[in-house]
């Protein structure tokens, strides 16, 4: 979650309206310098936080997803247009009643240690993720499989008691684990989490705690050995330091801040010649989430008043320099899942004051902060300390809420501690975080009232029978138009319940050294074909200082 990035399963996204994903795309054309595609070289990537667990369905942070996604592989994958396509399964079929999925697996695929990949690995992975002892927030969607079959080494069949619309999407998210290495391991404590092998394009070479992670190309990768020989992730929490390292040529790739992207890169001809920049409406949004178990957030009038007191236009200008879009639903604007007729909470401090007064919060002593039954209207917002944009957002929100009589304190917490000690334990008043989403609109694990155990994603504690009903109905409907109607209604119900305040949907920003070739922006972003990127041989380097 460097986003709260349920990087693994909650990456759900658009299947329609894909053209919008390219709006704002500003990728500079890569000049055709010397060199053709070649194997070798190293791509150095700056990341803000360290991965927590390299078993993807055991982690909930984007750093783990970025690294683990290169080490492991899935039965299906999304192509550049976000259409499902073959991966470890060379083909698949869905029964007419929608209750049976049959996957025909590729033959001749092997793990890096030489052990063959078979249907037993898929079965083992499924048994592990659905095991109630497995500490994963992703198990629920796989428990919908009532039974499995492995009629031979290269066929895997999943049966469902009821049609499950997101089923194929879930199998595009489940990284397949090696049964022969993990069969006798405790998945919650296994060393494999920090020393994995998988069927993805890269394998772990070295993990230097707190400093860097280094991956090497997997010669046995089923799609062919990737061009770039090594991918290294350097942990650099501060964006300014990342930029200095990019400027000095010590790293190849970073996610620049809006200020760097919009003001620094355009003014620096030397950078423009060497660094390509990309922006596109990403698959994520930033929000202010309330702990609905705690006062004053148990009162919906307070939540709605806060929504009216926050100036989202100011946030988008001040935090993202306009590199964002306003949203009022947990879907990407312009896609079939996003309702066109939804009315956002407008910035209206007078309305916020009226709602707080109606809720019984009044400034009786004239100090500018409202009280009720001897308690001040005050709470704490926490967010991760490695995200400058969220820090600025918290400060702007603090100022606006003070103007309506709410006293806010802001606390910045190191990412791993933030997740383990506050989010997973539900020990917070309010948080600023982000959700990453996947092509499927299902958000059962985020909003359903059953998903509130420690480590699960409904950590705000929403319990809304109508939301539950819509989430459950959406799982049973396959037709896109009907599904869209359901999720439009869900979006309206969520806006009404106001468990979070949508702040903005930021553009994804990347700055990449032009020596990295074959980057082709698409509705899926830029990294959907990362194993096909290459560095021409004359531009490869291997002497990195560590």
Automatic annotation (TrEMBL):
Which keywords describe this protein according to UniProt? Signal
The name on file for this protein is Peptide-binding protein
Q: Which CDD domains match?
A: PBP2_AppA_like (cd08514)
Similarity comment text for this entry:
Belongs to the bacterial solute-binding protein 5 family.
Query: One Pfam family this chain carries?
Result: SBP_bac_5
The UniProt entry, under Gene3D superfamilies, shows: Dipeptide-binding Protein, Domain 1 (3.90.76.10), Dipeptide-binding Protein, Domain 3 (3.10.105.10), Periplasmic binding protein-like II (3.40.190.10)
Species in which this protein is naturally found: Thiohalorhabdus methylotrophus
All copies of the Solute-binding protein family domain together span: 84-450
């Amino acid at each position: 979650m460097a986003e709260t990035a349920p990087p693994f399963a909650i990456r759900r996204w658009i299947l329609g309206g894909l053209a919008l994903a390219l709006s704002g795309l500003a990728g500079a054309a890569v000049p055709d310098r010397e060199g053709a595609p070649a194997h070798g070289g190293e791509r150095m990537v700056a990341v803000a936080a360290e991965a927590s667990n390299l078993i993807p369905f055991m982690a909930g942070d984007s750093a783990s997803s970025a690294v683990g996604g290169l080490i492991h592989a899935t039965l299906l994958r999304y192509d550049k247009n976000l259409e499902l396509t073959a991966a470890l399964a060379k083909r698949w079929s869905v029964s007419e009643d929608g209750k049976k999925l049959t996957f025909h697996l590729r033959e001749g695929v092997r793990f890096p240690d030489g052990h063959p990949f078979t249907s037993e690995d898929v079965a083992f992975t499924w048994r592990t993720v659905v095991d109630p002892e497995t500490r994963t927030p992703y198990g629920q969607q796989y428990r919908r499989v009532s039974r499995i079959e492995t009629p031979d080494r290269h066929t895997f069949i999943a049966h469902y008691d009821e049609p499950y619309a997101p089923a194929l999407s879930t199998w595009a998210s489940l990284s397949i684990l090696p049964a022969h290495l993990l069969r006798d391991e405790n998945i919650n404590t296994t060393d494999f989490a920090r020393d994995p092998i998988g069927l993805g394009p890269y394998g772990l070479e070295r993990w230097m705690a707190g400093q860097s992670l280094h991956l090497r190309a997997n010669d046995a990768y089923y799609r062919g050995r990737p061009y770039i020989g090594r991918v290294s992730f350097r942990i650099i929490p501060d964006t300014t330091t990342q930029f200095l390292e990019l400027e000095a040529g010590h790293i190849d790739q970073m996610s620049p801040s809006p200020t760097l992207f919009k003001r620094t890169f355009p003014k620096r001809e030397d950078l423009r010649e060497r660094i390509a920049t990309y922006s596109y409406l990403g698959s994520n949004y930033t929000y202010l989430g309330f702990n609905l178990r705690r006062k004053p957030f148990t009162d919906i009038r307070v939540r709605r008043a806060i929504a009216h007191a926050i100036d989202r236009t100011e946030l988008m200008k001040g935090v993202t320099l306009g590199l964002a879009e306003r949203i009022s639903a947990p879907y990407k604007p312009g896609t079939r899942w996003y309702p066109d007729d939804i009315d956002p909470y407008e910035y209206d401090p007078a309305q916020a004051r009226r709602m707080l007064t109606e809720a019984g919060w009044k400034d009786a002593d004239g100090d500018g902060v409202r009280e009720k039954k001897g308690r001040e209207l005050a709470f704490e917002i926490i967010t991760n300390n490695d995200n400058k944009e969220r820090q600025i957002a918290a400060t702007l929100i603090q100022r606006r809420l003070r103007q309506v009589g709410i006293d806010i304190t802001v606390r910045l917490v190191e990412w791993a501690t933030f997740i383990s000690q506050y989010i997973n334990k539900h020990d917070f008043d309010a948080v600023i975080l982000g959700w990453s989403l996947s092509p499927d609109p299902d958000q059962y694990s985020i909003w359903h009232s059953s998903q509130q155990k420690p480590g699960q994603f409904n950590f705000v504690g929403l319990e809304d029978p109508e939301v539950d009903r819509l989430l459950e109905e959406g799982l049973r409907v396959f037709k896109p138009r009907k599904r869209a109607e359901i999720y439009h209604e869900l979006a309206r119900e969520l806006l009404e319940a106001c468990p979070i305040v949508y702040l903005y949907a930021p553009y994804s920003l990347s700055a990449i050294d032009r020596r990295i070739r074959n980057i082709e922006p698409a509705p899926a972003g830029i990294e959907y074909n990362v194993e096909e990127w290459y560095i021409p041989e004359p531009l490869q380097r291997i002497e990195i200082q560590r």
